[in-house]
Amino acid sequence: MAANVDVASQTQIVLRTEGLRVYYGNLLALSNIWLDIPKNQVTAFIGPSGCGKSTLLRCYNRLNDLIESFRAEGNIFYYGENLYSKHIDPVEVRRRIGIVFQKPNPFPKSIYDNIIFGPKIHGYKGNMDELVEHSLKQVALWDEVKDKLRKSSLSLSGGQQQRLCIARAITTKPDVILMDEPCSALDPISTLRVEELIRELKKTYTIVMVTHNMQQASRVSDRTAFFNVKSSEKGERIGYLVEHERTEVIFQDPQQESTKEYISGRFG
Ligand SMILES: Nc1ncnc2c1ncn2[C@@H]1O[C@H](COP(=O)(O)OP(=O)(O)OP(=O)(O)O)[C@@H](O)[C@H]1O
């Protein structure tokens, strides 16, 4: 695969979005998106409801393919390879680019079985016990659950369930983890633990997260992309990218007035 490199910073670019337009039927949900996602950094997507943050996130692992009315124009490159090329297998894309959702959604199975589910499907030949221990240690859950691995995952707290879902996402050895508002269903203490975990995980993975929580974006992310919605002549709401930069720049010295207004809570 050809390497994408940001020449100015020499950072490797994992996902490069070029002129992306996304439609659901006739609705243009996202217009003309150009955005690079750098390796081993956390990129946060912020913006008002309906501006297309989740839509873009789901384009990165081809999850929108499952929606009948979905159509994309433009390109997304993963290490230089077009993710939407005919020869690319979406299942393999989803193995390399995992996703964690807003609401913790463990399978109604034991903690152990949640972890080995994906590897089993992909024909993992290694030692499952070691895999379970390693994955749970990576999300700092091992000490809390090591004596009840055969208990139902649903007996865990919401925060523990979300860390289990993150552990499940990393068992198939992805390269990128997408997170769609991963803390919005969690209490403040569980939220801080997941945030700590995200900071730790970026040493190994590239992370893209959607969040409505401005403080969370400023605490956790290295780069922030601000999206907004505009109305077309027909009154349809079209999402677009306003600006993206290092997080401290977006929060302390944004270039666009709308970004300033959004982060100061004056709209959205
Ligand atoms: N499956 C779908 N079918 C049709 N339209 C959709 C679908 N999913 C999203 N949309 C539309 O696409 C636009 C962008 O939605 P999206 O969920 O990506 O925005 P968002 O910024 O993530 O919003 P929120 O912050 O409320 O989650 C909205 O107008 C939404 O109604």
Automatic annotation (TrEMBL):
Keywords: ATP-binding, Nucleotide-binding, Transport. GO terms for molecular function: ATP binding; ATP hydrolysis activity; phosphate transmembrane transporter activity. GO terms for cellular component: membrane. It holds the Pfam family ABC_tran. Residues 15-254 form the ABC transporter domain. GO terms for biological process: phosphate ion transmembrane transport. SMART domains: AAA. PANTHER family: ABC TRANSPORTER I FAMILY MEMBER 17 (PTHR43423:SF1). This is Phosphate transport ATP-binding protein PstB (TC 3.A.1.7.1). It comes from Richelia intracellularis HH01. The lineage of its organism: Bacteria, Bacillati, Cyanobacteriota, Cyanophyceae, Nostocales.
